[in-house]
Design a protein that fits this description.
The protein is mostly helical and 133 residues long. Helices cover 54% and strands 5% of the residues. It contains 5 helices and 2 strands, in the order H-E-H-H-H-E-H. It has a two-stranded antiparallel sheet. Helix 1 runs antiparallel to helix 5, helix 2 packs antiparallel against helix 3 and helix 2 packs across helix 5. The radius of gyration is 15 Å and the shape is globular.
Length: 133
């Protein structure tokens, strides 16, 4: 049985940041007034070697927002789902590149401070923008 999963992989043009779609959706949800959660928020100045685990933490926390939105029927549920879906498509591809020695030195998601939704999104945007430079 052939299964095509290309629908879940964000489109990237040559020279186009792979996170562009995620950034666009983050811009959409950052103004949301109906998402009220505390989220583990990775530092934006983590060591460059920890960049992938940091990004993975942000996407893991997006799942918390998604659950919150399914309960509260948030106005931005579709945008939250897009970030989660697109991010995980890339995170799973990137995952294969991580070696255990790098990730052993990096913090676990739960080791970061919990911050409110607004601060979380601002940090997430900064981290993704760094990846797009």
């Amino acid at each position: 049985v052939f299964f095509c999963s290309s629908a879940y992989v964000p489109k990237t043009a040559a020279g186009h940041c792979k996170w562009a779609e995620v950034l666009k959706d983050l811009e959409q949800i950052k103004m949301s007034k109906d998402i009220d959660v505390s989220l583990y928020t990775a530092n934006t100045d983590e060591d460059v070697k920890c960049q992938e685990p940091v990004i993975r933490c942000f996407f893991l926390e997006m799942e918390v927002i998604l659950q919150e939105c399914s309960i509260k029927n948030c106005s931005k549920t579709q945008d939250v789902w897009n970030v989660y879906k697109n991010g995980n498509a890339f995170a799973s591809l990137e995952n294969n590149k991580l070696n255990s020695t790098t990730s052993a030195k990096c913090k676990e998601c739960e080791e970061y401070d919990e911050k409110n939704f607004t601060e979380f999104i601002q940090s997430f945007v900064k981290v993704i923008q760094k990846e797009c430079k």
